[in-house]
Amino acid sequence: MSTLEPDFRTRVAAEKRERMRTRLIEAAMEVFSSKGVDATVIEDLIEQAQVSRGTFYNYFRTTEEVMAAVLQAVGNELLSLVDLAIADRADPAERLACGVRMVLHTAKHFPHAGRFISRVGVTRSLDHLPALGYLLRDLLEATATGRFKLADPMLGLDLVVGTTSAALSSLGMRPDLTDSYPQEITFHILLGLGMSRAAARKLVDKPIGAVELPPESLLVRTLNRSPQHA
């Protein structure tokens, strides 16, 4: 027997497990989008994924765990796409300001995604949402160059993530918000990071483009349909 065979079997088993986990996450996104988060029960997820109850429990114990996994998948995907779009901007403060606005403008096209985020909550853990590393990179660089006035960049991470999470929820629940809301909330985030009003206004007036979501994007495939229940 080849010494490589056990490693091969282990790798195949790991790939199979990851495919099943992805299948369950995508099924959950379908159900959350069509039925609504609060109305979803485990039976709905099992039926959508066409798996046994035992298979489901091999990966998740509760609907809350599935919701967290969905948010992690969508969050990492969106933040990675945004970072790719702003990578050519040399100023880290500009990257952060444009990135936050792009995330919020994307959410305007997927308003129920904001309601989903408000229900689940956004983690600040880099282990669970590694794409937050892009944000921390910009906070560290902007602080080191004096663009932001922060005693600890991790405080900035809490400020940006917490405020953006609240803004995403508002975009999903408040029809009275004006088109300038993403720009204005980003302006106040920059003030909180220690920028002057003039410098912050200059950054939020920078032109931005739309996030390019590929057809295979999780958002495009599932969360772009309005749920039957808010």
How would you concisely characterize the structure shown here?
The chain is 68% helix and 0% strand.
Topology diagram in text:
Elements: H1 5-35, H2 42-49, H3 53-57, H4 63-86, H5 92-109, H6 111-120, H7 132-144, H8 153-173, H9 181-192, H10 197-204, H11 218-223
Helix pairs in contact: 1-2, 1-4, 4-5, 5-7, 5-8, 5-9, 6-8, 7-8, 8-9, 9-10
Describe the protein:
With 230 residues, the protein is mainly α. It is built from eleven helices and no strands. It has helices at residues 5-35, 42-49, 53-57, 63-86, 92-109, 111-120, 132-144, 153-173, 181-192, 197-204, 218-223. The longest helix is centred in the N-terminal third of the chain and has 31 residues, at 5-35. Mean pLDDT is 84; it is low at 225-230.
**Can you write the helix and strand succession as a string?**
HHHHHHHHHHH
Distance between the ends: 57 Å
* Number of separate strands: 0
Structural class estimated from helices and strands: mainly alpha
Mass-distribution shape: globular
Instruction: Return the average pLDDT rounded to an integer.
Output: 84
Spans of at least 5 consecutive residues whose pLDDT stays below 50 are 225-230
